[in-house]
Amino acid sequence: MNTKLFSPYVPRPVTLVEKTPLSDFVTRFTFEQDNGKPLAHKPGQFVNLSIYGIGEAPFSISSPPRRTNITFEIAVRRIGAVTGALHALEPGAKVGLRGPYGSSFPVMKFVGKDVLIVAGGLGYIPLRSLLFYQLRHRDEFGRIVLMVGTRDPKERIFVDEIADLAKSGEVEVMETVDMPDSTWKGNVGVITTLLPKAELDPGNTFVAMVGPPIMYRFVIAECRKKGIASEQIFVSLERKMKCGLGKCGHCQINELNTCIDGPVFCYTDIEAYQEAI
Amino acid sequence: MTTYTVYKEQLPGLFEKWSKQYALHVPARLREGFYDLVPWKKDLEIAWDYDVAYNSPKRFVMPPHEALITYDRRTCEAQPVFEAPKQILFGVHPYDVKALNQLDQLMEGGSPDQNYLRRREATVVMVFEPLTVSSSAFWASVGAASVAHGFDLYWTKIGPAAFTVEVGSAKGEELLGMNGPLLSSTAGDKEGARRAKARVLAKARKNALRYNWEETPRLLAKCWDSPLWRRYSQMCLACGSCNLVCPTCYCFDIREETDDKLETGVRSREWDGCMLEGFAKVAGNHNFRPKAQDRYRHRYFRKGKYIYDKIGELGCVGCGRCVRACTAGIANPLKVFNELWEETAHEY
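YS: structure for the whole thing
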């Protein structure tokens, strides 16, 4: 690399290789790095993806770290300019990529422990990276409990995958929807209603949670009620990570930059910040 | 520290020489009470007694609109863009150099911002000790009355036609010596410079924090829920003028423009402001600071606490530009910090 011409703002090209619809609005995109190298990310990190002419936006990486495979996945809800343009792409199309950026779930801390994964709405997307990393090293962890909460059955994503996980017996899956329809036979209620139903060993359980902003406060309160200490709770927070370098100021949570200090935080480290949860 | 004495009659010759190699900017009066740094040209009258330049010098090292990359939509390749014109900022006041030094630290830390650093590298900063003080300035009470580094030359007016020039860098000394040998300052000249500084300091101390500025982060830590934030922010127009004129505000947005054939384009950064309504808005329209109160408080916390916690200096250098720029009359760090101090005085 010509270091004289290095700029952290320059994306590198990656190619879309697969596109799988997950729901009416959410699609999984599999990309391949044109540089022939694995993405080398850690579970919980994000990338900044560019569709030239439209713009750049941050997305959580959904696939687990891969040592030799040069593909990686994101899953995206069609909601704005960049996500709309992304949904219009077909395999073979190229986009720009910067990253991976940010902090990650401390998987080494989780080794030998039970792990509770709380996924609200699209929160399953980044947590999937952690979950499948753990499954690859399944014998190094205790129980893996996955809680999934969705607004209504139609918006559920990775439905078959989650069903397979439940069947495999390697993950204890608990699922709920806020607003059931006639097809839904499972739990009804917000995701917090699942916590009292789960039997957990509070001293031995680490929690990883991702969901809509409103979710954290309530799930954390339930975890604390169960006796899980703040140091054992990890959250990934969403903000507008524009530059990814801790400069542009958009993703600040009080004095923290979500893009470099986060997005994954230990609850102890953010408890005191008014803007965090 | 090497100090030379330079006479006014030497300046046109020096400016002439410098302007051949550099874009030379000097303070000038644009109308009564309105000063700014403008491109130097022959016979331009330098506003030695300017109180504050309307625009801060950040625009020279981080322009309001700056290309970062060019891209080609057909190949999906992108190239960095670096622009770093050689420029001399003549007559910058010490508090503004303090602000530049802060930007240096913040843009260099972590992942260095090459665009900024290259511009800064190509910029020669010549400080001028102020002669007058803006009525809204309070730099003397926030530790920004003097700078020890970050400049190439430090000019102090010691008489109607004489200056002492302290050398801050080899580049500065070389520029100063371009028209022949230099005259070392006498002890008397240096004493003149010291007195000039003392005179302006006396004026600048008229507007002051009622406490030691280093207490500001501890003060703010107690004031998250103060009624002051709402009292002032309810008048906020969310126009971002305070961000715009602030010498230490550097938040930016990234935008792009493609040519009319939709083939190639430029991605640029543009100044943004944390006081603007959509600053912390994410996809799906969730706004993490929806109320003016959230944004107003954030700005003062950034100036008084967050930046301090990072680099040990206040993020406000007391230039008073925001006080003048605010249409609603609510941007005033001095007033805000002093009122918070009084509110909490009983706790000390």
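YS: worth flagging: Chain B has twelve helices and twelve strands.
IM: good catch. Also Chain B touches chain A through 52 residues (CB under 8 Å).
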